[in-house]
Structure formats: structure tokens, C-alpha cells
């Protein structure tokens, strides 16, 4: 399906992923000049639910989450159910990955990260439940890990506002491995189904697998009739103090579970402090942040002919509604070009946060891939993650190589890596001086504006935004155009450089 050019006032950049109710796009808000995640519902794909019920459910998502303002919940900015393209919700665009992707990629159990992640989730649920909002589909793919180590709840697409004990009838709502028994059996469904799901997620974070596995029918039977193995029985390295905490969340009868998310959170905090002298960390570890920054997804759909900035799209996992990956893991495909993230970025990439302020927008995928190839013989598969993390902090080639060299074990390895870099980069595009532009000429606001206008012919409305972002890290006017040239389709790069080198009118 072709990607729409605009939806409402929003300019579509590319597709991020597909969820149960629709497709999520990365879009640009021209009014506030920021990136957003735009979720469009596909009512025509659902045939067993009345049209009116789908519309109501979609509006509930927007209204429910729009009432919520919490660090652990993705923020809703805008929604419209009358747009010709379809009903949509504009929400916070978060860089990172879904929790299920993090679990798959982490090298081993990180106990403190598991506890920290659930502690954050329970804080968000406590706030939502206090506003009479029940999520009903808490699962790892609906929990986002940001590159700053925060965990955010997304996809309130099946949340319902109303009395705290609403009877569920007719339609099963949820994901099998994380649903509570009452969701299967048509009983009273309230906030305690979220606590059961949170317990199942914590079980998976600690053991690497949900409490029950199998076909949907097998999982349903086990959830309703069987007791999962204790955590410590699955993995003896897990403290036994956590056994009873998780088991209570997974109780079959809602009244036997925690009465609130706050109670669950307090029990988890107490259990953690039984074997750790410090409270749970408010953010995930640095290694978790590196994984969240490095995970990359493939395009979900090919776009119709579009500006180069909209030509590639990372794919999200099914529940991922407001996130885009920041890069591939080792062994993955090359990095795609990506426009800057105006709405959200790591503090390290903000102007003034570093002596060489910069971000990934200053580097092309070819440049990063070349550096990875140089580093792989020395550090192995970790090269891709190390390069990605370091490149997010600086736009200086010398600084980037210095940062990467600090990870090497011996002076000989560091010297070899730095010398390889000097040879590879001599005459590279990053150091090019464009004909008609003087090296050393300062990057003025006028030069940045002109660069944005030229780039707009190739990238569309993102051109001026990309130009302003690159101007923050460019050392002179020639360097600015060299950086911008890397954002243009290779087939059009020569024409772009020719236009850029023309004297200003």
C-alpha cells in the first residue's frame, strides 16, 4: 500500500510499523516543527467487529491516553476520526526499541534492569489506573525502552474508560501469554488484569520466557488451570525473594493479587532491597541503553516515489506504536538514512552537551559502515554497537576515532586503529571541499537557510530541518554541504553539489 503524503496537517516521512488496529508512520508537524508518530486505523481490515465499535475503541484510545501525563506513558498530542485518510492519533515519537526486542538481544539476564523496567511500568500503571484507565494489553511489545533508559507504555488501543469493574463480553481483548484468566472466561475485568500481565512480563524479563508457552488454546488452558514454575526453579540465579512477589501477581483469582499497582511496586521494591543495599534504579543500565539505541528494523512497505528522506522505513514490532530504532545490531543490514528527530533526542546530542555537539544525522551509513569494518577485527560483533553509540555523541571524525580507540585493549591496537582511520578517510566525502565554497568560511544563518532551500528540492519539507541540524556540527560551509550531500540519493548527489556550489543570488 502506498504511503500517504499527508494526513491532516502532518507530512508523512515513512512507515514505522504495523499494529493490531493499524499502521504507524513517522510524520512531521509543520506547525511545531517536530517529528511525531502517527497511528492510522485500518477499519476495512476488520470484518468481525461492527464499524461503530471500532470507531469507539479508537476514540477511547485517544481520549484515554490524552488524559495521561506521566514519564512512563507515551504522550498523545492530537487525534481526528474524521480525516479522509482515516482516523489517526498523533503521539510522542520515541527513539529506542520494544521491550521484547531488548529481551531477545541482551546477552544475559540483568537482574537490576528487569526490576527497574517493571518498577517504571508499575508507576505508569498506577497513574493510569488512578485516572480510571485500564490498558488490557500489557505485554513486552507495548513497552518501549528509550535510549535514555526509560520504559514507556504505549498502545492503549483497547483501553476502556469507565467503572473499575466493567464486564467483558463477547470480544477477547489482549495477547494470550499475558491475559488474565478473567479475560478468557468473560468475568469482571478491571485494573487487576494489568497487574497479572505485568507479573507475566516480569516473569519473562527474569527468565527469558513467559509463564506459559504453546498454542493459543494451550496457553489459555494453562493460564486458567495451571501454576507456573517458580522463578528460582527456572533459573537458580534468580533470588528466591522474587518468587512470591511474581506468584502473587499471577494469581488466578483477582482478589488474591495485589490490590493496586502501588502495592505491587512496593512489594517489588521491598523484595529487591532484601538482597540489594540500594533501591531499584530509576533508569536502565548503560548496556540496555546501547541495545535500545542499536536495534534496527526493516521497511514495512515500499513507498511510492517520494523524496529521499521518505524512502526507507524501519519496522516496529506489532505493538510498537511510537518508536523508531536507531541502528542495526552486529550482522544486520546497513544503516538507512534517517531525518533528524526534532521532538525527542538524547541529552548528549543536544547543542552544548558536548565539546563537539553532534548526532547520527552528521554521519552517513557508508561512513559508519566503513568505521565498523575497521573496528570488527579488533572487537568483533560489538563494533556496530560501539560505533553507533559513539557517533551519537560527536560530529568530529577525530573525536569519534578517539572514543572508539578507548575501547581497545592495548596501545598497539589503538595505534593500528587510528592509523587505519587516517588512511581510509584521506580524501573522504566528510573532508571534501565543494567547488565554489571556501573551506573555513563560517556557517552563517543565511548559509544554513540557503542550504535548506537547496536540500528541500531533494528531501522535501525535511530539507531545512536537516540543514539546521547539520549546521550545528559543521566546522565550515564546505563541511556543511559535504554532510548534506550524504543525505541525498547517490544518483542525485552530483546535481545537488553542483547547485550548492553556485553563487548565492
Provide a descriptive summary of the structure in words:
- The chain is α+β, with helices and mostly antiparallel strands.
- The chain folds into 4 domains: 6-94 and 294-310, Phosphorylase Kinase, domain 1, CATH 3.30.200; 96-273, Transferase(Phosphotransferase), domain 1, CATH 1.10.510; 345-426, no CATH class; 445-501.
- Helix content is 40%, strand content 12%.
- Strands 1-2-3-4-6-5 form a 6-stranded antiparallel beta sheet, with helices on one face. Strands 10-9-7-14 form a 4-stranded mixed beta sheet. It has a two-stranded antiparallel sheet with strand order 8-11.
- Helix 3 packs antiparallel against helix 9.
- The model is unreliable at 161-172, 296-359 and 426-436 (pLDDT under 50).
Amino acid at each position: 500500500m502506498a504511503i500517504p503524503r499527508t494526513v491532516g496537517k502532518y507530512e508523512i516521512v515513512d512507515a514505522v510499523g504495523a499494529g493490531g488496529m493499524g499502521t504507524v508512520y513517522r510524520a512531521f508537524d509543520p506547525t511545531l516543527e517536530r517529528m511525531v508518530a502517527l497511528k492510522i486505523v485500518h477499519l476495512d481490515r476488520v470484518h468481525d467487529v461492527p464499524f461503530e465499535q471500532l470507531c469507539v475503541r479508537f476514540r477511547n484510545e485517544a481520549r484515554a491516553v490524552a488524559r495521561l501525563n506521566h514519564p512512563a506513558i507515551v504522550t498523545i498530542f492530537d487525534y481526528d476520526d474524521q480525516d479522509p485518510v482515516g482516523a489517526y492519533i498523533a503521539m510522542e515519537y520515541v527513539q529506542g526499541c520494544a521491550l521484547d526486542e531488548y529481551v531477545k538481544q541482551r546477552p544475559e539476564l540483568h537482574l537490576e534492569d528487569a526490576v527497574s523496567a517493571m518498577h517504571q511500568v508499575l508507576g505508569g500503571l498506577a497513574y493510569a489506573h488512578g485516572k480510571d484507565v485500564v490498558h488490557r494489553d500489557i505485554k513486552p511489545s507495548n513497552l518501549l525502552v528509550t535510549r535514555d533508559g526509560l520504559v514507556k507504555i504505549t498502545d492503549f488501543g483497547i483501553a476502556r474508560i469507565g467503572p473499575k469493574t466493567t464486564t467483558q463480553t463477547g470480544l477477547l481483548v489482549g495477547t494470550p501469554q499475558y491475559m488474565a484468566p478473567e479475560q478468557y472466561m468473560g468475568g469482571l475485568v478491571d485494573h487487576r488484569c494489568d497487574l497479572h500481565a505485568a507479573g507475566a512480563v516480569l516473569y519473562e524479563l527474569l527468565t527469558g520466557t513467559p509463564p506459559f508457552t504453546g498454542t493459543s488454546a494451550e496457553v489459555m488452558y494453562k493460564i486458567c488451570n495451571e501454576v507456573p514454575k517458580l522463578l528460582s526453579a527456572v533459573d537458580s540465579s534468580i533470588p528466591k525473594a522474587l518468587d512470591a512477589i511474581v506468584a502473587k501477581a499471577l494469581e488466578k483469582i483477582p482478589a488474591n493479587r495485589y490490590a493496586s499497582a502501588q502495592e505491587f511496586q512496593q512489594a517489588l521494591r521491598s523484595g529487591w532491597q532484601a538482597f540489594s543495599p540500594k533501591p531499584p534504579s530509576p533508569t536502565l543500565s548503560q548496556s540496555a541503553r546501547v541495545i535500545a539505541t542499536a536495534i534496527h528494523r526493516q521497511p514495512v512497505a515500499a513507498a511510492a516515489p517520494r523524496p529521499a528522506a521518505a524512502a526507507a522505513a524501519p519496522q516496529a514490532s506489532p505493538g510498537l506504536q511510537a518508536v523508531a530504532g536507531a541502528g542495526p545490531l552486529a550482522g544486520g543490514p546497513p544503516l538507512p538514512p534517517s531525518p533528524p528527530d526534532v521532538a525527542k533526542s538524547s541529552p548528549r546530542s543536544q547543542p552544548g552537551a558536548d565539546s563537539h555537539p553532534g548526532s547520527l544525522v552528521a554521519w552517513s551509513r557508508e561512513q559508519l559502515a566503513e568505521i565498523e569494518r575497521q573496528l570488527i577485527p579488533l572487537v568483533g560483533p560489538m563494533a556496530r554497537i560501539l560505533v553507533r553509540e559513539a557517533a551519537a555523541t560527536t560530529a568530529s571524525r577525530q573525536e569519534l576515532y578517539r572514543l572508539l580507540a578507548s575501547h581497545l585493549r592495548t596501545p598497539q591496537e589503538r595505534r593500528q586503529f587510528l592509523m587505519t582511520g587516517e588512511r581510509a578517510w584521506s580524501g573522504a566525502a566528510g573532508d571534501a571541499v565543494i567547488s565554489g565554497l571556501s573551506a573555513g568560511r563560517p556557517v552563517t544563518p543565511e548559509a544554513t537557510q540557503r542550504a535548506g532551500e537547496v536540500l528541500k528540492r531533494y528531501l522535501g519539507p525535511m530539507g531545512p530541518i536537516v540543514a539546521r541540524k547539520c549546521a550545528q556540527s559543521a566546522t565550515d560551509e564546505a563541511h556543511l554541504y559535504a554532510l548534506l550531500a550524504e543525505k541525498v540519493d547517490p544518483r542525485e548527489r552530483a546535481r545537488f553539489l553542483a547547485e550548492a556550489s553556485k553563487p548565492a543570488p
